[in-house]
Design goal:
Elements: H1 3-9, E1 12-17, H2 25-39, E2 43-48, H3 68-79, E3 82-88, H4 96-103, H5 107-110, E4 114-120, H6 128-140, E5 144-152, H7 168-189, H8 191-202
Parallel strand pairs: 1-2, 1-3, 3-4, 4-5
Helix pairs in contact: 2-7
Length: about 210
């Protein structure tokens, strides 16, 4: 297969970091998940929202004055086959910066995408509320949120000075999440899967349902 054909067929996974903090534990956790995605042969990149000039979503129809980075973000997400969303838990929910980034997008970027969730918290519960909120957002946008999710609790002591996880079980969970997002994305884009979805969506309604 020619190199350009390989590049065209390669599964693309992007992770969006919902933390702007220097030395963010969320960013560290996402890098581990992306490493898992790369192990499957996928192209895996991090979208660091610190590098984007975004605005608060105002719901206006006129987007002519939106910063260019809004459209850059949309395009990068649209071209991806799968997403990994990472957030710290703030006051029992996901971060405002991640929610705003998602609010600036919609069905065109996220519908039908495979999504994996990563949550980071300073407490012992491991961002369970933030992850639950993100799962609801994914469903609302008609995305496929995979059942598995990865949480890093007490993140302040979970990483060493080089950003490596101290607990191999948490590392394995993040690696597995990245692998699953990439593999499900591949299956979802395969011809057999697409044919199944076409048949399923076109099947007559089951009168007994």
């Amino acid at each position: 297969m020619a190199e350009n054909e390989k590049a065209r067929d390669q599964i693309r996974i992007v992770a969006i970091c919902g933390s702007l903090r220097p030395g963010s534990y969320t960013r560290m956790a996402l890098q581990v998940a992306l490493r898992g995605a790369r192990e499957t042969g996928a192209e895996a990149t991090l979208i660091d929202l610190r590098d984007y000039q975004l605005i608060f979503c105002d719901g206006k129809d006129d987007e002519s004055k939106y910063p260019k980075d809004v459209f850059r973000l949309r395009d990068e997400v649209k071209r991806a086959h799968g997403l990994i969303l990472g957030t710290p838990e703030y006051h029992g929910g996901l971060s405002g910066v991640l929610k705003n980034a998602l609010d600036l997008m919609g069905f065109e970027e996220l519908e039908g995408k495979m999504i994996g969730l990563v949550g980071v918290s300073g407490g012992a519960l491991g961002a369970v509320h933030a992850l639950s909120h993100l799962r609801t957002v994914g469903r609302a946008l008609h995305a496929w949120v995979i059942p598995e999710q990865a949480a890093v609790s007490e993140a302040w002591k979970a990483f060493d000075e080089k950003g490596n996880l101290k607990n191999p079980e948490i590392e394995k969970r993040l690696l597995d999440l990245g692998r699953q997002v990439a593999r499900f994305s591949y299956l979802h884009t395969s011809e057999k899967a697409l044919e199944f979805l076409r048949l399923w969506e076109g099947a007559p309604m089951n009168p007994g349902a």
